[in-house]
Amino acid sequence: MKDLRAYSVELAGEQQQFLEQMAAAYKLPDAGKAIRCLINYARDHADTRDEIFAEVRCLDC
């Protein structure tokens, strides 16, 4: 079994809804799995990290 640990993350309502929609669309067990998929993608694709993390976005301002 994997060593899963709880980690609290603050999300805007639309962000939470998006994760829940993606979990449902891709038949993931929950939004936590959707977050883990995003993290694993960033870990596995070092060439996209600047695209993911360097740009400041303000979709919920």
Largest sheet: none
Mean pLDDT: 91
| Estimated helix fraction | 40-55%
Structural class of the helix and strand makeup?
Answer: mainly alpha
Number of strands: 0
Estimated share of beta-strand residues: under 5%
Helix and strand pattern = HHH
Gross morphology is: globular
Q: Specify the oligomeric state.
A: single chain
Tally the helices: what do you get? 3
State the low-pLDDT regions, or none.
none
Radius of gyration: 13 Å
What is the distance, rounded to the nearest whole angstrom, between the alpha carbons of the first and last residues? 40 Å
Structure in words:
The protein is 54% helix and 0% strand. The chain has 61 residues and is mostly helical. The protein has a domain at 13-54. Helix 1 (13-25) crosses helix 2 (31-44). The longest helix is centred in the middle third of the chain and has 14 residues, at 31-44. The radius of gyration is 13 Å and the shape is globular. The protein starts with 12 loop residues before the first helix and ends in a 7-residue tail after the last helix. The model has no long low-confidence stretch (mean pLDDT 91).
Please render the helix and strand layout as text.
Blueprint: H1 13-25, H2 31-44, H3 49-54
Helix pairs in contact: 1-2
Short précis:
With 61 residues, this protein is mainly alpha-helical. It is 54% helix and 0% strand.
Key features?
61 residues, mainly alpha, 3 helices, globular
